[in-house]
Amino acid sequence: MTRSDVHTHGTCDDSADPTPGELARHAADTIARRSGIDHHDIALVLGSGWGGAADLIGETISEIPAAEVPGFFAPAVAGHVPVMRSIRVHGSDTVALVLGSRTHYYEGKGVRAVAHGMRTAAAAGARTVVLTNGCGGLNPQWSPGQAVLIRDHINLTGASPLEGATFVDLTDLYSQRLRTVAHTIDPTLPEGVYVQFPGPHYETPAEVKMAGILGGDLVGMSTTLEAIAAREAGMEILGISLMTNLAAGISPEPLSHAEVIAAGQEAAPRIARLLADIVQAIATDAE
Q1: Domain Nucleoside phosphorylase: where (predicted)?
Q2: Which of 63, 68, 203, 287 is catalytic?
Q3: What pLDDT digit, counting tens, does each position of 58-77 carry?
Q4: Which of 42, 97, 120, 190 is buried most, with the most CB atoms less than 10 Å from its CB?
Q5: Who contacts 42 (Cβ-Cβ below 8 Å, separation ≥6)?
Q6: What distance in Å separates the CA atoms of residue 63 and residue 256, rounded to the nearest whole number?
Q7: What is the model's pTM?
């Protein structure tokens, strides 16, 4: 890892790069000090289209610019929120750490940077994480704006956040228990397999066809590396995708990031309410 792979804001010893665990603990300590919250129970990563959920989850206790927390960066993608929020979930004592900004693999900052949010959330006390994203869909029966629970994934990045002889079982990576809780809020939510490509270019029609042959239902550029890091850290994971468009070759229309953002904005009020209700149900179920 080079010096550019971490973002310490001058707060770590310049004589050596911190390990991922050290940097995560340093970030968690910074969040605790700045927010006044010693322990967070659940973490949320709000992908494209999901940002509005933070306003509905509960009472905001603290907001911290992401770039002021060691190891984090201002968002590089439109539609992501540049702050971390500590929120007390309505009707419970649960405190959520909401990560409005994620580092994507295609940004070139290294896999450690991609996994840093999960390691920080775990160091802050979170035992549950909800990962959201905006993505393309392979099922022509789904319309843009459809929320889909992730039941499994296929990681086509060729990378892993695990280092050395670290062997982690991914059999039940996306929690059946948490998906059951989500279905109590909306029994009609479909489930699918999420396929992560490296990006940042969109997939070709042939690549989308390949993803379908492999068993994929959704294609995107995030989530899988974070999920693996979260499992390594001992967290229980719920994944939810917003299908913003039909993937290349499924729809005859060319793909456009502006259209992805527009689809997310149109669906935002509905999916924000859905996610807030799911988080509140998870919090209630845990108490």
Answers
A1: 42-279
A2: 203
A3: 999 999 999 999 999 887 66
A4: 120
A5: 89, 94, 95, 96, 97, 126, 127, 128, 129, 130, 279, 282, 283
A6: 32
A7: 0.91
